[in-house]
Every structure is written in C-alpha cells, then in structure tokens.
Design brief:
By secondary structure, the chain is α/β, with parallel strands linked by helices. The chain is built from seven helices and eight strands. Helix 1 crosses helix 2. This is Medium-chain acyl-[acyl-carrier-protein] hydrolase.
C-alpha cells in the first residue's frame, strides 16, 4: 500500500501512479474525519486511488478552525482538487459530505472543469428538502441544533450514531470535537438551496431504510438535480447504516467503480480505433 499525505488529502493506492485510471474522493460527515472511511481502500479495485478528504477542524487538522459555510469550503476544495483531476474521478460523500460533494460538482460544472464520472451521495436530503433538516434533528423543529446548549447538542449527536461508544463516553474527546460539530451542523442547517441546479453528472444515492434524517422520499429528491442517470440504493440500517457492517456498502461501491473503470477502458479503445481509422484513411 502506497500512501501520500497532503494538507487537504490522504491518498492511498495499491498500484503505481501510472497505473491509476480512477480516483475516488471520500468526503466525511459532520464531525467526521478520514477515520470514517478507515481501510475502505482495501476493498477497492486495484487501479483505483482512494483519496480521503482532510477537512479543517478534525483529525490531524484539529487545531485549525472548521468552516461553517459550504460556499467558502467548496471554493477552497476546488482550488486544492484541480491538480488531482488529471485522471477520471468519482466523488463520494456521506451526510454533510454528500452536500459538499454536490455543491463542489456545481462549481466544477460552472467553471467548465473536468466533471466527475459519478457523484455518490449517502444519507443526505436533496436540496429541496434541506429546509426540513432541523426538523429531523430536534423535537421543537425550529430551534437550530447548532444553537443548543452543549449537553443537549451532544446528546442529540450521539443519538444519531456514527460516534463509536469508546469515544461517545469520553467527555474530553467530545469537548474537543464540539466546536467542529457545531460548525458542521451550522453548515447544514443554514444551507440555502436557492441556487441549486441540475448538473450533467450521474448520481448514485445511498441510504438506510430506517433513516429518519434522510428518508426515501428525501433521497429520491436528488433526481431533480441531475440531467444524467440516477439510481437509489437502500441498505439495512439508520443514518450511519454502514458503521457496524460496511461490507454491503463496500461491495456495492467496488462494483460501481469497476463498472465505471470498464466503461472508461471501452471508451479509450473506441477512441484509439477511431484514431487508427482516421490515420489509415489519410
């Protein structure tokens, strides 16, 4: 396994760089870091480079302030990502990471840059349902979660799952990640979908069949935001359906990446044949 750490990215690959034909970017959920996707690269195809996105305010960047505005965050990400779109790539984001992936794709499209082959969004409502984001988290429905007192805020976050028991019972750890969690939740709870539009990229949408934060109807809403293919896959579980048993998700993701890779190979062969035919007709 070859690894390369950059300020914003943690690259992992089994092949030489020259053999990589697809790059997978993994965007973490609110409060999450690269550990959310720990060891996922071990189940990816050999010609796929896995890139774990390292956001400020967590993990090795815990001393940096987190960013609470998706527009500012995606502006920064776009600048950092440009040099890594030299090969075809896929974006995968869970929960908040799904929203970031979509907003990033919008900017890539508007700027005429190389679009991702696929965007895979996991456990995140479509933009037209984001006005109900707070309703799915709090009993009063109107009082933003990120404004709640520390105890109530953390009790709610722990109740969503996604934080291992060993960490959820560690008050020092919870206090350490609290500022980042608040800013991440603010990003989601203050998201403005007014400028959200369809992009010419295929979407795969994943979710848990018992998720009250991103329901089947709210996941289906992503159809509106792509002009290409759309597919929805529901797994057994809640908002963090893959935490206890990631194998089903990783099996599904691996097959998707293999399909994309095979199509890219077929496309390359067609281009070579067309080039050869043009040369032979001169």
């Amino acid at each position: 396994m070859k690894q390369e750490v950059k300020p914003w990215f943690f690259f992992k690959r089994n092949a030489e760089k020259s053999e990589i034909r697809l790059r997978l970017f993994l965007f973490p959920p609110a409060g999450g870091d690269v550990s959310t996707f720990l060891h996922w690269e071990e189940q990816m195809p050999g010609d796929v480079e896995t890139c774990l996105v390292r956001l400020p305010g967590r993990g090795a960047r815990i001393t940096e302030p987190a960013i609470d505005n998706v527009d500012i965050l995606t502006d920064l990400l776009l600048q950092e990502m440009k040099e890594y779109t030299d090969v075809p790539y896929v974006l995968f984001g869970h929960s908040m990471g799904g929203l970031v992936s979509y907003e990033l794709t919008q900017k890539i499209y508007k700027q005429g840059l190389n679009l991702p082959e696929y965007v895979i969004i996991s456990s995140m409502k479509a933009p037209n349902y984001m006005n109900k984001f707070t309703e799915s988290l709090t009993e009063d429905g109107n009082d933003k979660l990120y404004l709640k007192r520390n105890a109530e805020f953390m009790d709610t976050i722990i109740g969503l799952g996604g934080i291992p028991d060993a960490f959820s019972e560690n008050r020092e750890f919870l206090e350490l990640i609290l500022p980042t969690f608040r800013k991440d939740m603010k990003m989601c709870e203050t998201y403005n979908p007014e400028n959200a539009q369809a992009v010419p990229v295929s979407f795969d949408i994943y979710g848990g069949n018992r998720d009250s934060i991103a329901t089947k109807k709210e996941l289906e809403g992503w159809k509106k935001y792509t002009t290409q293919k759309y597919a929805l896959t529901l797994f057994q579980g809640n908002h963090f359906y893959f935490m206890d048993n990631p194998n089903m998700l990783l099996f599904h993701l691996r097959n998707k990446l293999m399909d994309i890779g095979n199509k890219l190979t077929d496309q390359t062969h067609r281009e070579w044949r067309m080039k050869d035919e043009c040369n032979s007709n001169r």
